[in-house]
Amino acid sequence: MVQTSKSKEFTRRMIKIPNRLRTVKNTTILLVTKDPVDTYRVPLTDKEAVTSDTFTDIVGYKKFKTMVGTSKKALKTYHEYDMIITDNRLHSLLPKLLEPTIFCKSSQKFPLMLQMAKPDPDAQLVKTKKSGFKDERVEPEYVQGQIKSWCRNTTFVPSTGPVISIIVGNPKLSGSEIIENIDSVLTYLCDESSRPIGGIVQGGFEGILDMHLRANDKTLPIMKKS
After folding, report:
1. Which of 48, 66, 90, 211 could pair with 223 as two cysteines, CB 3.0-4.6 Å apart?
2. Which of 151, 179, 170, 183 is nearest to 215 (CA)?
């Protein structure tokens, strides 16, 4: 497969698949918010909120920086959570912060992002000390919907090289369910109607030269063009 990006990218793109990869309940999730963290943690963990038990941990950006401040700390954080999700307003800060760490060696664990509330041009903003305004809204149901989608579906990051790795299953899925997921992934990557997020493989299916399925450290070739 030819390269699918001219420069290194860090934003994981979602591909919807018919058979879920995981559930929120069985996923360890770290949420990274803007500071102060309690602005977001309090409403999200309120006992009446739909997100009350969603997150394993919720930390502010300053705390997260200490959690990935060294290669050893970053490795520990990397393995401690199945999924790390950040406020989308922080995402632009991550490449520089995480570039020296394990997170940039595998696109499958680079932090995802979400919005704390639905975009609303009429939203009530909070005035800051610097005579600016900021949006501190938190909508637990909107947040939960995004978390469910990230847990259910798979992701990919366009590559500057000839290879893309995408998770298509788990041990609980049957062979036919994994095949259904693979079919959905291929269609999304190759179909021009999925652009600009999908449809990134030039030439469609003809642009894919090899395809392998990896499980338990073993790789099985499932397609190879001569």
Report:
1. 211
2. 170
